[in-house]
Amino acid sequence: MTVLGYARVSTADQNTELQIRELEAAGCVRIYRDQGVSGTKTSRPELDKMLDRLGRGDEVVVWKLDRLGRNTRHLLELLDGFTERGIKFRSLRDGIATDPDSELGGAMAKAMVTIMSAFAQLERDQLSERTRAGMAIAASHGRKAGRREVTADHGEVKRAHELKAQGLKPADIGKIIGTSRATVYRYLNLNAG
């Protein structure tokens, strides 16, 4: 039996450190991680690798159910697949565990997964509705939604160019101005006036 962990974050700016720490503490010998991949995608590179590697008696451990799947149907399909293949499943933060070879996590665990997934989906849907409503109100007041355009006159852009002129590397500039290295490169590509 091998205990495998799966961690996922939706954006490249987020990190999986907390998930990894807890998965290691739970005894995972290998952890698959998808970085910057939405949970709404059913095909995720590292998840697919883990699913291909699983065998009877193995256990899949996740930090929370929503890391494995944000869509109730997909999550239940994965869990049904685990059961059919004789694979155990455990969600650390949700306190759910299933074991197809025992009474652990039978009908009650599946019901809890369904209920928790449905509430998570409801929360995401409500957030989307509130966001769309807020954007409509902003538009009615003549404001555009989204990030404000950053120009060469922006203070952080000017500061990035100054630090670059002093010989600092983009990673160091990012630490000083409190932004990612990718953002620093974007700033440096803007012609500072």
Task: Please provide a written account of the structure.
The chain is of the alpha/beta class and 193 residues long. 51% of the residues lie in helices and 12% in strands. It has eight helices and five strands, in the order E-H-E-H-E-H-H-E-E-H-H-H-H. It has a five-stranded mixed sheet, sandwiched between helices.
Topology:
Blueprint: E1 3-9, H1 17-25, E2 30-35, H2 45-53, E3 59-62, H3 65-68, H4 72-85, E4 88-91, E5 96-98, H5 107-140, H6 155-165, H7 170-177, H8 181-189
Q: With helices defined by DSSP (H or I, 4 residues minimum), what is the helix count?
A: 8
> Reading side by side through the largest sheet, how are the strands ordered?
2-1-3-4-5
| Biggest sheet architecture | 5 strands, mixed
Shape: flat
Sheet/helix structural class: alpha/beta
Write the H/E string, N to C: EHEHEHHEEHHHH
Percent of residues in beta strands: 5-15%
Please mark out the parts with pLDDT under 50 across 5 or more consecutive residues, or reply none.
Answer: none
Q: What's the Cα radius of gyration?
A: 22 Å
N- to C-terminal separation? 62 Å
Helical proportion, percent range? 40-55%
Q: What is the average of the pLDDT values? A: 85
Number of strands: 5
Question: Quaternary status of these chains?
Answer: single chain
